[in-house]
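dumping this here so i dont lose it again. seq + smiles for magnesium ion
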Amino acid sequence: MSGFSWDWAYALSILPELLRGLMITVQATLLATAIALPLGLVLILIRVAGIPVVSRAVWFLIEFLRGTPFLIQLYFIFYVMPNYGVTLSPFTTGVIALGIYGAARAAELYRAGIEALPPGQWEACMVLGLPLPFVWRGVVMPQVVPVVTPMLGNLVIVMFKDSAVLSTITVLELVATAKDIGVMTFRYLEPLTLAGLLFWIVSYAAAHGVRHLEARHAGR
Amino acid sequence: MSGQSVSLHAYLPFLIDGVWVTLQITFAAMALAVPVAFLLAAGRMSSWRVVRLAAGFVIELFRGTSAVVQLFWAFYVLPLFGITLSPMAAGILVLGLNEGSFFSEVVRASLKSIVVGQREACVALHLPRRYAFWRIILPQALPVMIPPFGNALVLMLKFTALVSLVTVQDLSFRADQIRTALGVSGEIYGVVLMIYFALALVLAGAVALLERQAARWAGRPVPALLPWLRAHASPVPRWALGR
Amino acid sequence: MPGDDRIAATGGRPPMVRMAGVSKAFDGRTVLDAVDFAVRAGEKVTLIGPSGSGKTTILRLAIGLTKPDAGLIEIDGRYLWHEIRAGQLVDAGERHARGVRRVVGMVFQQFNLFPHMTALQNVRDPTIQVLGLTRDEAESRAVELLTQVGLADHMAKRPAQLSGGQQQRVAIARALALRPKVMLFDEVTSALDPELVGEVLRVIRELAHATDMAMLLVTHEISFAEDIADRVLMFDAGRIVEDGPPAQVLKDPTHPRTRQFLRAIIER
Ligand SMILES: Nc1ncnc2c1ncn2[C@@H]1O[C@H](COP(=O)(O)OP(=O)(O)O)[C@@H](O)[C@H]1O
Ligand SMILES: [Mg+2]
């Protein structure tokens, strides 16, 4: 029954290693975000552009990525890519997979943001005969961005928590680190609890930031 | 290549069994998540501060930490406290509580979404509060919850893939076994992704039927069937795309 | 106190709704500033005034949807948010208020019918809950009232299947079914298409002439106000600036704000 009672000294001794794992988790999340947000925008723009076959294909891709488990998407990319001569590190593979998955979800958020625009706004632009660049930059975006920004912030938090799945392809992020410590020392209580706590602290702080963002936009 | 697809073919019944396990976990976890969501929502709206705080703590616990951590915790740590669950039970428990915590916010928002006017009409008509909640507010809030409930169901289906990490023999786990057994590349995961997607479409379709029924019941306009086709309409008018 | 003067002038009946020194602020902005007035039993009083002057707030205070920051509200001889204990006026809670406001009915600008119930259920079910009528009693009362407002043929329809004017008439029947002693109407025709306004005003006009209920109405329909009101109160910036019979307030206003307001309405 080792690990039944909480051992502070032990918890403290494994903290530096867990923090190293957290750094990897944060790095993976941020890099994946850097892929997801622009790629998601590109996807949704193609999707709404009404290009005959392409738009429909992109729409299907978005729905497919959103409708299937990220874990399996990750396995698919991880095990299939080498067949085509592409060998990347597990970390890079994980970041790409998380970025693509996040892009599909971001695309959906951009769409929701555009849909939240009252139809009267488009009609007003049309009857005023406003030039297209102004319609997008002067009317649509200023209304869509404040709506979408907090949603994207929440998406990043979700991706942060989803990045734990990268532990399954040997990326030594926070969860993998915690589990490895557990396996090696036969004490699971401290590493797994601390891992949960670290996830909570970061996502709580981030959620706070998102709320701040939301309040600032609402206050305008 | 053809030899491999023959082998895959031979493994199909094995995969189908995994589909059943996946669906069982999906529905069992959902059956746990829904009452948990209502309880937590009620807790958050309680007039007792202690209850509000406790419900808030549970929600924060499950929403703020990663589901993977929760799953490992239930699998590796709970037995240390003398609570040994089968992998399947641990999976259902974690998924149910996790999704229930998310869904409780939906329940709360749906109850709040019933326009102020309806609540005020209840006050102005001096209706007893119990009656106002059960017969006026809740019947209007339930249909509002159905589309997010549909999302939650599809989310849960995807979510169940994680239980393979604690050795539950679901669809994902069996895919892994087939890959190792055949010693082949990861194409099997492509097949599995398509199976998951097909299941998601079926579940979403079933929820869409439910949504139509609820709309009829609530006296609202009945939405079109096949929400994923409905969603294909572009939110941007053609002229704004420069065509 | 203009309200009290009027009470003395309109004969000996007791006030059904009385407000004394009632103030209300939202987010630190004063919306009502020590308002005094009373509506006597059987009296029909019309509130007019520019948008944002606090008319809706007055009605919401009168039915206890909003609590005043200061002042006393009395309904049918009882204080809404206070009670007298051992000769002392003390604060009373929501439970007390619920009992007192029972005699007040209200019709909203946006109808607020229950969308999942038919017209009949909307009128019938509250009487079962609030008055404790049996199902049969409740049903015959609902049928009678819906017939009275001209909806005998639409009782089985849901609100979404009715026009705005029909919905508002259901809402009036629903409020009447609870046998209120005072009825509050908050711009009940301003959400309606113009051609539907007449049918709703006709119902209220008949009601005003046929019943002894006290009525407090916010409206911008000047000829309607002239026809049914015993008294017109002009609101401006959270105060009553003019109070008198319709012939005076609407035809020969003394306050410059009233003149300005009426001119703006007529020039519409
Ligand atoms: N719940 C509320 N919260 C904040 N401000 C309010 C609220 N209700 C009313 N107000 C404000 O009080 C003022 C008076 O409102 P109201 O009584 O509705 O005026 P009227 O009915 O005469 O148009 C308005 O400026 C309005 O914005
Ligand atoms: Mg008003």
